[in-house]
Amino acid sequence: MTEVKLCGMTRAADVDYAMTLGVRFIGCVFASGPRQRTLAQAVVLFEGIGGPPPGRVGVFPSTEPPAIRAAVDALALEAVQLHGDPTGESVVALRQRPGVRAEIWSVVRCPQGGPLPPRAAELWSVSDAVVLDAHVGGQLGGTGATLAWSDLAPGVAALRGLHGHTRLVVAGGLTPDNVGHAIAALRPDVVDVSSGIESAPGRKDPVRMRAFVDAVSAADRAILPGLR
Questions:
Q1: Rounded Cα–Cα distance for residues 157 and 13 (Å)
Q2: Which of 25, 97, 133, 192 has its CA 20 to 30 A from that of 145?
Q3: pTM here?
């Protein structure tokens, strides 16, 4: 089954509704942009979540340990998602820092056409998950730009063969209308959506949230017809 992460939450009501949908992860963004929250705002945002699931994911612009450690402690994060073009060395260094008791998800920003970037290999070997997102100059994520999933498939398959323990998270312009195509092409462990379920930046649309979750379930059933 493909797990769902609804990201870029800015309103407690949206978090509450996401919980009714049974999603696996809910994300809060600490990087600059229309969905950015402070740590204090994130505490309020997540206070209705009694415990996993859903797991709480913090999205960070860098691997700066103090800010990440503070968020892990205050929010009981299950994962930290690194959007600032992390390196394998920086991921290893963060993992070795005391107090960072969370999975590390490393973002690989990919061109909107063409194969998987070479730097994906080092991140695949040291991360708990690799997040494939679209590369848009000057923006770290939440752009709505889609990926050429079929172009990425050969590289993904090769790295999965070498590092089967690392999960694949697919982001980048996913919507209820196209998430099934991404699942069919890449068979991700998690699909990650933000702008594709919004009525405006940072404002989630409950109709689109439900439609996205339903589309993921439909795609899974198409691949494994025995699923309910």
A1: 38
A2: 25
A3: 0.93
Residue 85, amino acid: D
Q: In the chain, how many domains are there?
A: 1
Instruction: Render 141-174 in DSSP notation, one character per residue.
Output: S-------HHHHHHHHHHHHHH-TTSEEEE-SS-
How many of the other CB atoms lie within 10 Å of CB of 153?
16
Neighbours of 50 (CB within 10 A): 6
Q: State residue 111's pLDDT score.
A: 83
Computed over every residue of the chain, the mean pLDDT equals: 91
Taking the C-alpha atoms of residue 43 and residue 58, their distance in angstroms, rounded to an integer, is: 11
Distance CA 178, CA 70 (A): 36
Identify whether 228 is part of a domain. Answer: no
14 domain-assigned? yes
91 assigned to some structural domain: yes
CATH number, position 202: 3.20.20.70
Residue 102 CB contacts under 8 Å (≥ 6 apart), including other chains: 72, 77, 78, 79, 80
CB of 149 closer than 8 Å to CB of 185: yes
Cβ-contact 168, 129 below 8 angstroms: yes
Lookup result for tokens 């025995």: 226
Nearest to 208 by CA among 24, 6, 3: 6
User: What is the span of the domain harbouring residue 161?
Assistant: 3-110+118-223
